[in-house]
Protein 1
Amino acid sequence: MSKVIISSLYDSDEFKMACRQFDQAADAINLPEEIRDRTKYPRRCVAFALPIKRDDGSVTVFEGYRVQHNLSTGPSKGGIRFHQHVSIGEVSALAMWMSWKCSLVGLPYGGAKGGVIVNPDHLSEKELERLSRRYMQELLPFIGPDVDVPAPDMGTNEKVMGWMMDTYSNHVGHIVPGIVTGKPISLGGSQGRREATGAGVAHLVKRYLEDMKISVNKATVAIQGFGNVGSETALALANYGAKIIAISDWTGGIYNAKGIDVQKAVKYVQYQRVLKDFDGGEAISNEDLLTLKCTVLVPAALQRVITPGIAAKLQCKLLAEAANGPTTNQADKVLDKRGDIEVIPDVLCNAGGVIVSYFEWLQNRANYYWERDEVMTKLFKILDKAKDSVEAQKRKFKFSRRLAAQTLGIERVASAKQSRGLFP
Ligand code: NAD
């Protein structure tokens, strides 16, 4: 028997949600008691005070975290989020999901996640650079290309990864491109990494629509979140012939039954930073976007946006979880009961990002760089294989697709821990 003695450190809606999912999956596969808690709880976490000088000469101290959930199957891997609502509980749930995701798609990584409580829109470019560098500086004793490898998440991007890589490299005295992924191409970033998550989401949507006998060029799509993942998903699906009828960001949404010009929206956001006042359709609220009648709904922003109330009102046929943790446990039950909506669960749906991050890390280590076509072909091959394994697990045990994906991810991590044994 194992006994867990855990403080309330990680206590949060997200962590409880990830733990409930874990418990359900562990029960479903009869995971032995002695391995459960070791597999479930984060291996370690670090909290930092991050003082930075503001442009006006004052100093602000931000709080940041890094949670390394699992280091048993390789270096831990996961993004860094800059958002005003970050908490250590949220970061640990996201780290847990990274563990199952990496394991599900067969990457030699554990899961991790980082975050800073900050609204990056309230920082100047120089302040953002100082904060990014300070974060990496504080992380130095706990990180390395064989220990923990960060990547972008909400509120961070290629530029931030470039500054972090530079900070680490200056510390060790030589360039170490493999310390982070999602870097600019000029610093050892991979072809295709920027669009990888969205391209992966779009690829899986196309594959699932085929299974549902719906032609992608007859599909209508609503996407919440128009950052890296949301915009790249929109571009890729529009490229496949789907009609993007709604998009949104934190300022609100745009609806156009005739289809939104996604390229134009991307250009608009490049200059204006937000979708507000984009003239490609009529205004729509984020909540109304979620419950629009459409073929595919893609939440690509925050977690826990699909509540039981929203789940009951959804009018899509396919829910593609590009965001991490967009559907609450209770909402999941509503969807299971309804039975009329196919769900591509987050750990599968958005895995394209970490897969191409893995490719980037491999290229950095080999100092040998691949063409974009090679990256995309290999990405889709891994996603297809993961999809097939999820579908087989779903059929074999009559699981929901989320349970199938999570049990596969959890099983492999638990098995690695069991094989390694408990030291000392
Ligand atoms: P991003 O910062 O590039 O974009 C986030 C978008 O969400 C922005 O358009 C923002 O305005 C919008 N948003 C924020 N709060 C919102 C709200 N309350 N309502 C509606 N929209 C809101 O972030 P991203 O990298 O695109 O990440 C989006 C999601 O995808 C996150 O859940 C992230 O964890 C997940 N994800 C990202 C990657 C990646 O490679 N970047 C990989 C896997 C999963």
Protein 2
Amino acid sequence: MCGIVAYIGQREAYPIILKGLKRLEYRGYDSAGVALLNGSLRVYKKKGKVAALEESLVGKAVHAHAGIGHTRWATHGEPSDRNAHPHLSASGKLAMIHNGIIENYAQLKSDLQKKGYEFKSDTDTEVLLNFIEDIHINNGGNLEEAIRIALRRVVGAYVIVVLDQDHPDTLIAARKGSPLVIGVGKDEHFLASDASPIIEYTKEVVYVNDYELAILKPDELVLKNLGNDKLTPFIQKLDLELAAIEKGGYDSFMLKEIFEQPHTIYDCLRGRLDATAGTITMSGVQSCMQYLKEANRILIIACGTSWHAGLVAEYIIEELCRIPVEVEYASEFRYRNPIINKGDIIIAVSQSGETADTLVAIEKAKEQGAIIFGILNVVGSSIARASHAGAYTHAGPEIGVASTKAFTAQLVVLTMVALKLSNERGTIDQKRYLHLLNELQQIPDKVATVLQQNEHISALAEKYKDARDFLYLGRGYNFPIALEGALKLKEISYIHAEGYPAAEMKHGPIALVDEKLPVVFVATRDSYHEKIVSNIQEIKARKGKVVAVISEGDDVIEGMADDVIKVPEADEIVAPLLSVIPLQLLSYHIGMAKDLDVDKPRNLAKSVTVE
Ligand code: M6R
């Protein structure tokens, strides 16, 4: 969480930093700030979104060729002007931005206080900065060395960038556990949490690794480890277009990303699935096919929406491949003492590839000898690099905080992995295999059909937007979709929603049902159809309002529900790819109807790089 941007070169730094912060705002938007160096350091910061900072800077002196900027997701200290980054050191000569958490900050702070340091903020960042300054003062003024010494004593995760008033031609950055990309231009360098603030200026980037330090001057990039050994920077070419990170005429990234799904799913299938030839080509899967084929157990590790994708995959893999699957919350897994046996395969699912809990969980599993297969959207991300093999989802940058297109792309990849593996293991008969390949290939067109119901779903949103709670119910492959629908509604509209297996509601949640409670049934035609029809009747008998996502032509449920949203008929294995779309749209429209910022819901951030 938190977005960082920095620039050093010949151009004006402020406009570059400001634009970059807007692009990184999905990472946190509790406050924003910049430090600009033009003779002396000027720090401007403001509680709230980047726009508030921008407004407060109209007419201010922002001329500088070096600067750092930050958009914050608060950890230590409430969102406020004084807790906003950048922070200044006690001498006022160093400015620093930080993404991450310094876990031993309390001890460091009390040591510094004993030496007379006073703190203006409640942040761990200001503590680290003064710790660096303290070493710097005592080591004869070598800032680079002071940073190295300080970071060796720090427990936690960080990306930091330091600007030194006495060395206006140098930026020093370091990373452990949070992402950092350097953009390499002609006589200029950029730093950012991801490549989006950089691509407009250069496509040449270096991904900084953990425990590395980058010393940047306009015309020089030096990369070192914390032991002061020089490293050779690996310059890569970015495969990302500017249009992919802009709204392209939509009112929000969320709506754009929902509507992109026919294309993103197509892109995910392209070059991999050939229904006519009956093949799935995935080099990452092939490279560890032997392990996968012989796996005793598959553990899927993820968080949030990615965890829901894993849950759908559990049903699919167990059904098709006959391998036991467990789906784990990364945050729980990492702190347990998990049992990992020879022959266990870990599948890590993550859009950002930076989720701290998922990253640490797989590192822990790796230490115990597990093979890690990553299903990731962001190329070159930390989890991608920590995995032994994997498959990218190719959904393109997802900027709306609510995950939509990344989720469907994850499902597509997981389904292809399951199909390929079941075919190799001989646990699927050829007819069903070819049928499912065909079904998958038709999904982009069917998703486009579902999207045509946007107006209808918008009207439903208007009808139900004032409900205090929602219940989402589904069975089998659609149970995780009920969870996902509830999560989407919570995060976008701030309405309390619960997802449940439809049959489980009798064991408690049914007590919530009255004439005011909308119950969303995810009830496309599948092997559980008759059972879910009974569950709908149970809700109707208690006067609940039923909104059902059903397959076209399902007159039975249409006759019972208060409202329906129809999706094209599809095999139950691929049906979640269709049934989730109306739920994404419903939460989007309810959020809009309540005049909320659907791209940046309160308290959230796109990549959760703190535990
Ligand atoms: O980047 P990841 O897929 O690892 O992120 C996991 C969750 O933080 C993420 O899915 C989160 O739940 C979304 N806000 C859901 O819309």
